[in-house]
Amino acid sequence: MSLLRNAFSRLHHPVDVIAQCVHSYLAYSLSLRNLEEMMAERGIVVDHSTLHRWVIRLVLLLDKVFRRHKRAVGRRWRMDETTIKIKGQWKYLYRAVDTAGQTIDFLLTAKRDTTATLRFFCKAIRHHGEPEVVTIDKSGANTAAITEINKPKSEKEAITVRQSKYLNNLIEQDHRNIKRRTRPMLIKLHTEGGGLL
After folding, report:
1. Alpha-helical runs (H) found in 81-168
2. Which residues on neighbouring strands pair with residue 69, listed in sequence order?
3. How do residues 86-128 score in pLDDT, each as one tens digit?
4. What 8-state DSSP symbol labels residue 155?
């Protein structure tokens, strides 16, 4: 709650209402307009654009706090990318999970190339340390990025690369959760003409 109080110097709504709205939006497959209606049913008048500002403002702060308290991830990663539509444009969402299915990191990019893949791996390694083994698909960009990371290392220190579509089923199935989360937003966008985060 102190995080919220510091983030919003002039509050027009109680902190617990803001926290509940942001939590509901992030945790469930709701559009901003759905959330606006839910709050109205509870006697709280808040516009969907205000909800959108709260989400944008708090997501980065919450990410910092959650990263501090996040459980250590495994040393064997499964990495893959998928496409999602944001504001009418297709983007690539790079993601990695460990063998327990815990999300390691993610990165949203406009391109699917070696530079984007390298950026993703550098970000993930910076936050969680180097993995022992990375399972990837047959993408040349993924292979090139890991080769680049392994260049200055000896053979013992190098990250082991496994290329197998069957071993990567864990991350492929995990993409379904992302698609399930974003699909209702896209439907709302087309039916209402509303904005998409």
Report:
1. 114-128, 140-150
2. none
3. 778 889 989 988 888 888 888 999 999 999 999 999 999 998 8
4. T
Cα 136 to Cα 51, 144, 166: the distances in Å are: 37, 11, 10
Full-model pTM = 0.65
Strands annotated E in the chain? 76-86, 89-98, 103-109, 133-136, 160-163
126-185: pLDDT as tens digits:
988 899 999 888 888 989 999 999 999 888 889 999 887 677 666 766 666 666 665 555
Query: Do residues 101 and 77 lie in contact, with contact meaning Cβ atoms separated by under 8 Å?
Result: no
What is 76-185's CATH number?
Answer: 3.30.420.10
Distance from CA of residue 188 to its chain's centroid? 21
Domain residue ranges in the chain: 2-69, 76-185
Q: Are 116 and 94 in contact (CB under 8 A)?
A: yes
